[in-house]
Design brief:
The N terminus and C terminus are likely disordered. The chain is α+β, with helices and mostly antiparallel strands. The protein contains nine helices and 17 strands.
Length: 316
């Protein structure tokens, strides 16, 4: 159901997006940003699903907002997004981890606010309990697939983000690069900085921030290498930049080079994230299997007939 009061009294234009500066509630924030509207009309706007936080619609008047939250007030009701192709790897009262596919944004951008992993999983959480919100812990690039972790409350998010280097014990990736590596196993140490075009670059000397990336070759075939990568630091695009710097660009990465694109996607997959729970100190291992497309480039699939024969031999 539409809200003609809001549409008629406010001059129609584009949806409005605001950044929260201090802790408040959803209703109080909407009333502040729409001073021409009565409290009753602001409640109607929220109830009519015309308000979203981080791109996800919220209809709870008392929902808490925090600094840096982005609130959008829309001219039309914002429909919820069903979760598709987003397997849940792990879930408890405080954490939620999914297997994000390549081609899906982790969070909203200036150009896309609806089709994001955060949006879909926020709707999933709120459908189970409308008083709950989802909080961003870290991000994966749009074309990178694999383990993506969210927090279910603000306190857990803050603990994870403030102590990320202590909480995370491993971040493993599979990467497919052009060429065969001269060193089959190595650790790359570079200082990175962000240039005026928002691209990360390797600095000369020690200006910038240190990035440490270790890799080991798993397989080589047809002029490509499959790597097991472990990052020790969390710098933006560090795997792509550091591997490209030594002449081995990740396939499909037209952002930092012009490599071939045999996969029709970026050859980077976050297969493992190990953390120490900020709630009870448990070690939690989050894993995503190697994409089929990655396997098919380097390994021959076992024939079903051979598999059945092997199974029968084992039974005997």
């Amino acid at each position: 159901m539409r809200n003609p009061t809001f549409r008629h009294r406010e001059r129609r234009g584009e949806d409005k997006t605001f950044v929260v500066k201090k802790e408040t509630t959803l209703l109080a924030f909407v009333m502040e940003k729409l001073p021409k509207q009565s409290e009753r009309n602001c409640r109607r706007i929220i109830a009519n699903h015309q308000v979203a936080v981080g791109g996800a619609p919220i209809s709870l008047f008392s929902a808490e907002l925090y600094p840096e939250d982005e609130v959008t007030i829309a001219w039309e009701p914002i429909r919820k997004k069903k979760r598709r192709d987003l397997p849940i790897i792990y879930e408890d009262d405080h954490l939620l981890a999914i297997d994000k596919p390549s081609g899906l944004l982790s969070v909203a951008s200036d150009k896309e606010k609806k089709a994001t992993a955060y949006r879909m999983m926020s709707d999933y959480v709120s459908m189970k309990d409308r008083s709950k919100r989802l909080f961003v812990v870290h991000r994966l690039d749009e074309d990178t697939s694999g383990v993506l972790l969210f927090a279910k409350d603000r306190a857990t998010q803050e603990k994870l983000q403030k102590h990320w280097n202590d909480v995370v014990t491993k971040r493993g990736y599979y990467a497919i690069v052009e060429g065969e590596m001269e060193k089959k196993e190595d650790t790359l140490r570079n200082y990175l900085f962000e240039d005026k075009t928002n691209l990360m670059r390797v600095a000369h000397g020690k200006s910038g921030k240190l990035a440490v990336t270790s890799y080991k070759v798993i397989a080589e075939k047809g002029g490509y290498s499959l790597l097991d990568v472990d990052i020790k630091t969390g710098r933006k695009n560090q795997i792509r930049v550091q591997l490209g710097h030594i002449g081995h660009y990740i396939v499909g990465d037209d952002k930092y080079g012009e490599p071939a694109n045999p996969l029709k996607r970026l050859g980077l997959h976050a297969y493992e994230l190990m953390i120490v729970s900020p709630i009870d100190g448990r070690s939690i291992e989050l894993k995503s299997p190697m994409p089929t497309a990655f396997k098919s480039m380097f390994f021959k699939a076992r024939k079903k007939e051979e598999s059945h024969v092997s199974d029968r031999r084992e039974e005997k």
